[in-house]
Amino acid sequence: MGSPRPVLITATLTAALAGALLAPLPGAVAAPAEDRPQPHPVREGSREAPTAAARAPLSATAGALTDETRDLTREGGYPRRTELEAPPENPADKSIKLGLAPYHSLAPRLNALQALGDRVSVEVAGRSAGGHELYLVTVTAPETAAQARDQERMRERIENAPAAAAEDRHIKTRYKTPVFINNNIHGNEWEGTDAALKLIEELAKAKDAKTADLLAKNRVYLNVTANPDGRIAGTRANAGGFDLNRDFITATQPETRAIRQIAIDKQPAVMLDLHGYVNGTLIEPTTPPHGENYEYDLFLKNSYANALGMEAAVNGLGYTAEKDGVRPAVIPFRDQEEGWDDWPPIFTPQYMPFQGAVASHTIEFPMVVNNNAYNTLPVEELRRRAAINTDIAGAAMRATLDYTHTHRASVLADQIETFRRGAAGEPQRPVSEESVPGVPGIGPEDVYTAKFPRAYVVPAGSSQRSATAAARLVDHLVANDVRVERAVTAFRLAGRTYPAGSYIVDMRQPKRGIANVILAAGRDISADVGTMYDISGWSLGLLWGADVDAAASGELRVRTRTVHAAAPTGYVAPRGDLRLRLDDPKELAALNSLLKQGVEVRRAGDGSAIVPGSARSRAAVLADRLGVAFHATREKGTTALERTRVAAAVTAGELFALRDMGFDVVPVSTAVLNAGFDWSTADVLYVSSGLDHAKLTPAARAAFEASGVGVVGLGEQGAAFNEAASLLEVTAVAGNGDANGVVRVRNAGGPITGGAPAHTFVYSPMWFTGAGAGVRVDQSYATGNPLVSGHWRATEKGTGGPGDAAGQAAVVSGTSSAGTPVALFGTEPMFRAHPKGVFAQIGRALLAR
Predict the structure, then answer these.
(1) In which residue ranges is the amino acid composition biased (Low complexity) (predicted)?
(2) Which of 141, 135, 283, 290 has its CA nearest to residue 204?
(3) Mean of the per-residue pLDDT values of the chain
């Protein structure tokens, strides 16, 4: 066991992690406590005022559904000149008040930096949800087209033939080590962008031999602003309302997909992600639990050593708590017990190791300038703080370049070794003071390893729901650079027989870590740590609707072909009326498209849709576009389905998912209803966030009651609305508010949960008791311990744990005394637009109005 790590946080965990109250300064104003970032799970959207509607205009969400990620491996050498078109000047850009670079100034500045010499290149990596260009800058010594092709050949060899690459002298001497610096992914954490601009200019102008050698042996990639929408608006989220630094693995947003493509194309060995605001400056690596799918011994070795260099550089700037309000830098791995973990792969630095980074860090600069501080502090104080943050961000960047350059050989060797272990199928090496010398305080609490299966199989010939979902999952795997094969013939593996056409993910591959992240069930870590920074479970294998088998052992003896895209899954029966199962969000999208076209569709008793044979040609278009199946049926259905217009008081992720399923959605809130909402424009009200019945005016309450619209409620606010409006006779019971993860459920079938998977997602889980007459239990938590993966323990009072939830009603429905159809969810079927396989439960509930 390693020496004990210093305990800097226990009961004061939140304050220490947030670290935002500055030491008093003459003439300076301390940031209010509410400005401090909170480390514990907080329901997405709950920080907004209770009257706020989800902030995701339809145009922005539509933009997010269109992937404009660019191919960044094009032919040609460096520099690559791109004359950027400057957007119109925007005096409302929130950066201006801080004395920082507004978005509209970036294109002219980058054009000027390209003109300084032959070291700076700019490419457009994509567009944001709000339509703003994403600028990727490369700083390196000039390369001919042939030299650039040689670099790309070496990069591919490192990934695809790592054992040979480890012995390749040409790679050792000629390959330029890639460093990636990601800035401003949270729009109101601005200063990384400005530090990046300064660094680019310094590198472009420098005449010294050290800089020349640095750029001859390394490529420096800088995403100047990862979130231009938020930078302009002064918001954490993008124009779609998404926290982009929670979107990796799901990758709903174009900004996230652009960063993912940079990671795949450039394969950075070292990366930084610049954030604010934690005082003193927080420099990862993190506290436990550590992501179990990393080659953590290689990662910790480099991340800790680089953190020490950044710490020295930041502290060496000379800022002090007494003089400037700046506390010394903090390295959580060394200085804290828990609460700032790298368990979920949803953050940029936690995603990057799966694409080859052997050191990746979140850097949190110290001086709060956003939220309430932005609105209350004097401009001079804000600019003083922003200047300090910019200096600190720059120091971290320069220290990282120094580390990478100085340790280039070992950094590159460790990246190659990461890929080699995956390709060879070797077990991970647990961290210890022996396996990672020079890192103090390593103990058993730091050891998290995965036992990788021999392969994953997505079987062919399963249900149509699974086929549609399998295609989505396979395409997502490929987009993350996971190697997927498709069986040409039937085969046996681990005692099971699979038909031809089944998809195979051989886990002897360089990027096995990301494959396992996506497909594995995950792990229950409730007993391992007391608190988590964010979510703890996310399995796409269980939550995206596909059937996925993990074969623990066995040899793959099967002819396969490499998959670049999933095989088509659309089907339309040649004769008769058609049944469309509504088990998948794409099937809901198909239904809503048909209804929008005026097709007369009826609902069957099991919740599926009966489409008349006369709409076969329209069904064929949708089958081709969405990959859904319309099977022949003799059933005529019971009730007519109509286009459902949804008034939605929801989070941005839920709003995105609703529109992804094709619903007409109007965001509402307490304020919107109090202003006089026209209920004739809505058929159903969906409540999960931003709507407080108790704060509605008498006129707004009366208007809702007279509307007769159905209600779907989710979580605490949905249950509170149900109770205040006296709709469904049930008692909502709240579990531990910090709990989250993948859970097992039992589905009763019928209109809401017919065809639903046996797993769903929870965040601050709830359940329902005391059901009155006519209340139907549509879904229950499984008996025993329903948690499969994540973090869910009882509260300090011993209540609210998974044992209390076991067997209880998770989803209920019925009709109010006034005849209003109501459905209530204690689960999170559309959390951050992630658990796609269970979206349809909400969609079906909305249709049952």
Answers:
(1) 48-65
(2) 141
(3) 92
- What letter does residue 185 receive in the DSSP assignment? S
Instruction: Please state the length of the chain.
Output: 849
Residues 474, 467: Cα–Cα separation, whole Å: 10
pLDDT tens for each residue of 373-429: 999 999 999 999 999 999 999 999 999 999 999 999 999 999 999 999 999 999 999
Q: Which residues have CB under 8 Å from 431's CB, separation 6+?
A: 296, 297, 300, 439, 442, 446, 447
Q: Tokens in use for 818?
A: 């006034």
Within 10 Å of residue 781's Cβ, how many Cβ atoms? 27
C-alpha 151/C-alpha 139 separation (Å) is 15
Exposed, middle or buried: residue 596 (CB in 10 Å: 0-12, 13-18, 19+)? exposed
Tokens at 113, concatenated: 């930096």
Residue 134 backbone dihedrals phi, psi, to 5 degrees: -105, 120
Neighbours of 785 (CB within 10 A): 17
CA–CA dist 238, 254 (Å, integer): 10
- Determine if residue 618 is left, alpha or beta; phi over 0 gives left, psi from -120 to 50 gives alpha, anything else beta: alpha
Is residue 642 flagged as an active site residue? no
Burial of 257 (0-12, 13-18, 19+ CB in 10 A): buried
CA nearest 442: which of 315, 296, 324?
296
Q: Please provide residue 781's backbone torsions phi and psi, each rounded to the nearest 5 degrees.
A: -65, 145
Q: How far apart are CA 76 and CA 662, in angstroms?
A: 42
The pLDDT of residue 40: 35
Give per-residue pLDDT as tens, 432-454: 999 999 999 999 999 999 999 99
DSSP 358: S
Q: Which residues pair with 422 in a beta bridge?
A: none
**Residue 795 class from Cβ within 10 Å (0-12 exposed, 13-18 middle, 19+ buried)?**
middle
Q: Determine the Cα–Cα distance for residues 714 and 725; give it in Å rounded to an integer.
A: 15
**H or E segment to which residue 360 belongs:** strand 359-365
**Gyration radius of the chain over CA positions:** 27
Residue 183 CB: number of other CB atoms within 10 A?
26
Question: What share of the chain has pLDDT > 90, as a percent?
Answer: 89
Three-state SS sequence of 237-305: CCCCCCCHHHCCCCCCCHHHHHHHHHHHHHCCCEEEEEEECCCCCEECCCEEEECCCCCHHHHHHHHHH
- Listing DSSP states for 42-83 in one string gives --TTTTS-TTPPP---HHHHHHHTS--------S--B-----
- The neighbouring-strand residues paired with 766 are 734
3-class DSSP state for residue 379? helix
| Residue ranges with strand state E in 614-683 | 629-633, 639-641, 645-649, 664-667
For range 509-517, the mean pLDDT: 98
How many C-alpha atoms does 177 have within 13 Å on its Cβ side?
29
Q: What is the pLDDT of residues 315-367, one digit of tens each?
A: 999 999 999 999 999 999 999 999 999 999 999 999 999 999 999 999 999 99
Q: Measured over all CA atoms, what is the biggest interatomic distance in the chain, rounded to whole angstroms?
A: 82
Q: Are 112 and 193 in contact (CB under 8 A)?
A: no
Write out 575-609 in H/E/C secondary structure. CCEEEECCCCHHHHHHHHHHHHCCCCEEECCCCCE
DSSP lists the bridge partners of residue 648 as 667, 686
What CA–CA distance (Å, rounded) separates 243 from 185? Answer: 8
Four-residue CA torsion sign, 237, 238, 239, 242: negative
Q: What is the DSSP letter of 637?
A: -
The catalytically annotated residue of 191, 284, 311, 364 is 364
- Give the residue carrying structure tokens 């400057």: 86
Instruction: Kindly state the tokens that stand for 505.
Output: 């993910």
Q: For residue 633, how far is the Cα from the chain centroid? A: 40
Enter the tokens of residue 279. 């005082």
Cα–Cα separations (whole angstroms), residue 298 to 270, 439, 570, 698, 704:
12, 12, 44, 62, 59
